[in-house]
Amino acid sequence: MRTGARSGFMQNYTIVDALGALKACIALTPVMLAPGYVIGWILNLFEFRQRRAILRFVLSVPLTIAICPMFSYLLARFATPALWVFYISTSVGGLLLLAIEVWRFNLQRISKSTWVALGCVVLWVILSIGSLVDLQIRDNLYPSITAYDHSTRIAIMAAIARHVPPNNPFFAHPSVPLRYHYLWMLLCSLPLKVSHLRPRYLMYAGIVWCGLGFISSVALGLKFLLRTKTSIEQQALLAIVLLSVTGLDILPTAYIGFTQRFWLSDMEWWNDPQISSWAASLLWVPHHVAALIACFIGFLLLRHEADADRRWTAVPVIAAGLSFASAVGLSVYVTFTFVLAIILWLLALAARKKWREAAIFVAAGAVAFAWTLPYLLSLRGPGSGAAFAEFALRPFPLGLYVLQEIGISFRNQSAVNIANAIFLPINYALEFGFFLLVGILRLRQLLLRRIEASDNELAGWTLVLSGFLIGTFMRSSTITTNDLGIRCFLPAQLILLLWGAAMLYEWRRDRPQAKPSLWAYAAVTTVLILGIFGTTYELFMLRMFPLLHDRGVTGQSWQESDRQFGKRTYALRSIYEDLDTQLNSAAVVQNNPATEDSIPHMLYSGHDTAAGGLDCGIAFGGDRGLCDQRVRRLVALFEYNHGSLDGACRDYGIDVVVAQDTDRAWHQGSSWIWTQNAMLSNDYVRAFRCAATTDSVQLSGRGVSQ
Predict the structure, then answer these.
(1) How far is CA 512 from CA 112, 430, 506, 515, in A?
(2) Across the chain, what does the average pLDDT equal?
């Protein structure tokens, strides 16, 4: 019988993953870099052709992320051949333009700050890939904690690679349309059509490219929003360094760790809802950051067009509208926040009687709606039925816990709301840290008229205000996690990051009017140090916590408590690696939907499931009644050895069933796990081919027991 090991030799999955991610980064280059460069050149967005070579490269990735997601969706759905014509054409055009740039370029014109920034980019590539790939120590395998989220998106990417619009991969047979903002996964999955790369590697590479796009967007914000005239390279470098700073999360995390001996695997989880650090946002949720980039580029395009001393043209408006449309498919939460920001900005424009700019924004909104309509119509179908957003005051669970510990109790929800309102300043101080101080100092300078109340300054404040309004008074209810209350702050965080870099640069120049008071300098220094410590803790735990959990460190995790997670994950991945060589992409692979350790299954399978978890992922589309019915039947099979394996396979279109040692039936000698022949097996996992549905299995004889 074939086991999960290959030819008796243990390959190192860490090296395999790192090389796979690097190959995927290269494979995504024609998708992420070339289109933005060519589009910027042809449409001359931001006067692209008149800019320096370095600025053209800085513009390229953000323009791609802003324009291509929705454009790619429309082509993939309605004119697939045109999709490949577009990317082949932009790749060829990009190579020709790049050759011209290289011919004209003079390396001696690159400043030291730019070289340092390029070094930071290389560091980001190493840090991001190192934080995401599996860590192998002998026959123990430890994925990053971020696999908790990425496992879901990797399954969605595999579904997208099969057809667009995709179906919910966690509720196969009958298939239902996927109800999700999946355009980032669509963009990253394009190389799957022409390569043998795994979706997992393209997800990791997408995170690398999203980080590069965001770094570029920061530089663009300094130039086109803050209107930085001199030393923009130094200020951009300061902003990049500030990406390593988060709030004061390390303080409540340390409190919980030392008082309860419970160490958080993700530092952000001390609060619900959290406000993520930049490292966490990029590593956990690149699609939300991509939506931020798309909205920000659209916003900058319109503001730049409004400030131009010329008659406004349709090209920037259409491009901005397409950017906003892309954002809808990248993250509805970030887009919702920008919608409120634009409404506030339109009110400000009306108050200042700037009707020309108001017309530009309204026109871009109409264009965005036209671009988005086909995508929105494709999302119609059965779902969880939960409301997208509802009014609710932002909670502060840690503060309520501390009050209860000292004997203060709450008799009703009104008392809880009052306590949460009182705790809001502390809540935001802990979450924002340095960046809250930046906002306070910036507001003080504005009120004292040390900073001009320009259009761009007020536009920045609308982005900040919209985040705080939504984050304070609203929450999302689509899933348990309040994603709206978390992601709505991304625009505000970006503006505060830009202001923070500008403030620190002015302090460094030691100008008398910018010189801070002693208390301001001490406070900023303290929160900066604590913010860097927080990010360091977060990156370490995201990478190492699964290993630490196997060594006895307690904390919040999806892992089993028997300290066999590393060996079990290695065994599980080995089985799925072999299954991948024997199954076609349309095969349905089912594990126990009631397992607490479902993350590795989604991470390594790459196939649809009949019931992905106890809820079948119906938040992404599906019928609750059908889900409950099949979950009861499958759980009875895995947990109690009740029912027929072949009958379940036939009724739900399952091709392969994967059982593991955490299933109760595994420990029953008379169960189907031991009475039927396994196609693949090791000490922790057994895979079975369903007799009733063999069409999806390549009967090559490899790995099939006789």
Answers:
(1) 27, 31, 10, 5
(2) 90
Nearest CA to 24 out of 190, 241, 252, 175 is that of 190
Instruction: Average the pLDDT over 591-619 and give the result.
Output: 90
Residues 6+ apart with CB under 8 A from 669: none
The pTM of this model reads 0.94
Tokens coding 475: 């929450």
Burial class of 47 by CB neighbour count within 10 A (0 to 12, 13 to 18, 19+): exposed
pLDDT in tens, 606-646: 899 999 999 998 888 888 899 999 999 999 999 998 888 99
State the Cα torsion 529-534-537-539 to the nearest 10°: -110
* Backbone φ and ψ of 660, nearest 5°: -140, 170
- 660 within 8 A of 687, measured Cβ to Cβ: no
Q: Decide: 603 and 147 in contact? Cβ < 8 Å.
A: yes
Task: Supply 169's token pair.
Answer: 């991969």
Q: In Å, how far are 198, 256, 322, 527, 660 from 680, measured between CA atoms?
A: 21, 43, 48, 54, 12
The first and second tokens of residue 625, run together, are 């009644």
- Burial of residue 553, with CB atoms counted within 10 A of its CB: 0-12 exposed, 13-18 middle, 19 or more buried: middle
Residue 243: name the closest of 275, 211, 208 by CA. 211
Instruction: Classify 506 as helix, strand or coil.
Output: helix
Cα 20 to chain centroid, rounded: 20
**Residue 211 CB contacts under 8 Å (≥ 6 apart), including other chains:** 124, 128, 282, 286
Which distant-in-sequence residues (6+ apart) come within 8 Å of 317 by Cβ? Answer: 302, 305, 360, 363, 364, 367
Structure tokens at 599: 């993350």
In the block, which residue shows the tokens 């992420």? 32
Task: List the Cα angle 298/58/208 in 5-degree steps.
Answer: 90
Amino acid of residue 700? S
Which H helix or E strand runs over 231? Answer: none
Q: How far is CA 69 from CA 189, 342, 392, in A?
A: 11, 21, 32
